[in-house]
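Hi everyone,

Forwarding the result from last night's run.
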Amino acid sequence: RKNSGAIMSNDVSTEPIAINDIIFHTLPEQLDPKLFEQSIKPLSDITNLATFYEQATITQTYLTQVNMLDSINIILDVNPDHYNNNRHIIHPDQPLNCNIIVSAEPRKKNYTMKLSTYVNSRQEYCLSIGATVSNLLRKCETMTCEGAVNMDGSFALAESAKLSITKPLYEFGLKKFLNFALSKDTINHVNYNSYTENRISGITSLTAGDHIFSHELAFRDIQLDEKVTEPLLLEGGINLKSSLKHSWTNDTRDNPLVPTKGKYMTMTNEIAGIGGNVQYFKNSLSYQEHILLNNDGTVLSAKLKSGLLCPLPGQNTRISDRFFLGDIDFRGFEMKGVGPRWNDDSYGGNAFYTASIHVERPISEFKIGKLSGHVFGQIGNLTNELTSSNTAKEKVNNIMNTNRAAVGIGFVLAVPMGFRMELNYTNPIFYQEDDQLAPFQFGLAMNL
C-alpha cells in the first residue's frame, strides 16, 4: 500500500522505486525483533513497484503463518515531492524515493483451544481436541498438545496423543520452519486387517518453501487378533522403523475443498533402513487439474494418484507400510475394500494407481455450506504384482486383467469449517470377486 497518494500509471510494473529506510511502528514487544527485521529486510532491495507488492504479500502471508499476530501491515510511504498539484509523477523516469513502514498487532491471547474433525492417512474419521501455546520462550515457537479418537467405518475406537513444537527459522529466510513431534497411537484395524497397532514415534522435519525434509523413528507393536487369517500370521510382533522422507507440494487451486481452477501436485519419497529392522523405498504421487467450464460454475476435474513400495533386497513389506484403497479414495468400494485379501482381512498392496474424471456443478448455498452435484468415473488397481517373481509380460497382463472401474453420481457439501461431505451412488463396473462393494456411500474429507 502507498501512504502518500496513488501513483498515476496504467502499468505500475514500470515504476522504479528506491527504498531509503525501513521504519518499524507498534511492533509487539513480546516477539523477537529479528522476526520482523529478517523478514522485511529483503524488501529493501526491490527496485520496482510491482515486485514490491508481490513480495510484500508473500511476507505478510509468512508472518501470518507464524501464528503470533492478529494483523500485520506493510506500507510503502512515497515521498510527496515526486508529485505535482494534479497528483501526477513529475519525473516518471526517476525512481520513487520510498520508506517501508511496518506495524503489527499481537494476538490478545497466546493460547487457543480447538475441537475438530479430520481424515487421517488411512482414511479413518477422527475427532480431535487440542491446545496451542505460542511464544512461551519468546522465540516465536508454537507448542501444540493434541489428543484424538479415530472412528473407522465400523466406529472402532483408537487413541492418539501428540506433542509438537514448531519454530520459524526466519534467520534463514521466509517459509522455513523446524518442527519436532512426539506421538503415541493405538490404532484398531481389527475390522479390516485383524490387528491392532501400538506406535510411539518421533518426527523431526524441516520445511523450506514447497519442500519438507523429515526423519521418523517409530517403535511399532503389531498385535494380531484371534481371528487373523494365515497370510498375516507373520506380520505380528515388534519392529523399529527409521526413515528419511522428502515431500514436495505445488498447489495453485483456488479452494482445496471445491476448486474451480488450478492444479495440485505432491510427490513423496521415503527410504527406511537408516537403522531399525524395516527396510524399503516408497514413492507416492498425486496430481489434480481443475477447469471452469462456464459461468454457472461447472467444473471439470481430472485426478491421478499412484504409489509404489519396494522392499530392499532380502526384505518383505509390512502391513503398516502397504497401500490400501477404498471409500473416498475409490468410490464404490468399502474402506480397504480393493485389492488382495483373505476372508475378512485386507492384505494391502505394494503398488496402486487411480485415475478419475469429475464434473461438478453448484446447486445452492446455505448457511452451513455450499451444495453441489457431481458425476464421476474412476479406474484403478491395487496389487502386489510389480514386486512378484512373474515375468514383465505376466505382470502387465495380470494388472490389466484386474483393473477396477466405477461410475457414479452424488451430492457434495463444502462446509466452511474446513471439510467436504459427499453422499454418492456408485455403480462398480469392473471388480474382483473378493472386493468389498459399497454402492451407497457417505464420505468425509479435509481435502479433495
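The first strand starts at residue 17 and ends at 25.

Cheers,
N.
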